[in-house]
C-alpha cells in the first residue's frame, strides 16, 4: 500500500512505500564513493547520535540484502552542518531529518499510521531529496525504550532512522514504486521492521 499526496510518496509505519531492485546499478565496480549522502537535521545531532547513525547506515548497506543492491555501498556520509566550502561530489543524495531525533522512553504508543519518511516525484522523476520524520519514529518506538539506557536508545533510534533513509534511497535509486514481499522494501512495516536483531522487540508486532 502506498500513500500519494500532492505528488509526494509517503512512508508510513503501516504502509511503507517499497521499491523493486535494479541490479544493473551495481554492474560496474566502484573503487571510490560515487555518491555523497548529505544529512541535515532540524536539531543538531550530538556526536554520539551522528556516529551511531553513520555506523547503522554503513552496517545495513553491507548486510547483503538484495533490495539494497542498487545503492552505492561505498557512499560517503556527510553531516550537513559540517560541509566544507568547495566540496565537489559526483552524485548527491540529500537527507533532511525533521523533528527530534533522540529517543526517549514512553509509556504507550502515541503514533499510529504516521508518515516516517517521504520523497517527491516531480515531472515523473523521483528527486534525490529524502525526508525523515524523527519525531514520529521516536513516538512509535518510545514504549520499547522504557528499559533501555541512553546509549542503547541512541543506537536503537539510529538503526530505525537508517532503515527509513535506506528505504527511501531505494526509491530514488530505482525510480520504481513497486513493492517487495518482505525486508526493507516491504509494503507494511511494524516496530520489528524498524528495529532488527534486538531481543527487546521480539513479538511486539506493533504497527502491523
Describe this structure in words.
With 208 residues, the chain is of the alpha/beta class. It has one domain (3-201): Collagenase (Catalytic Domain) (3-Layer(aba) Sandwich). It has four helices and eight strands. It has helices spanning 47-61, 134-141, 150-174, 191-194, and strands spanning 3-5, 8-12, 35-41, 76-79, 91-98, 115-122, 125-126, 129-133. Strands 1, 2, 3, 4, 5, 6, 7 and 8 form an eight-stranded mixed sheet that branches. Helix 1 (47-61) crosses helix 3. The radius of gyration is 16 Å and the shape is globular. Residues 1-31 and 200-208 have low confidence and may be disordered.
Topology:
Layout (H helix, E strand, L loop, with lengths): L2 E3 L2 E5 L22 E7 L5 H15 L14 E4 L11 E8 L16 E8 L2 E2 L2 E5 H8 L8 H25 L16 H4 L14
Parallel strand pairs: 3-4, 3-5, 5-8
Antiparallel strand pairs: 1-2, 2-6, 6-7, 6-8
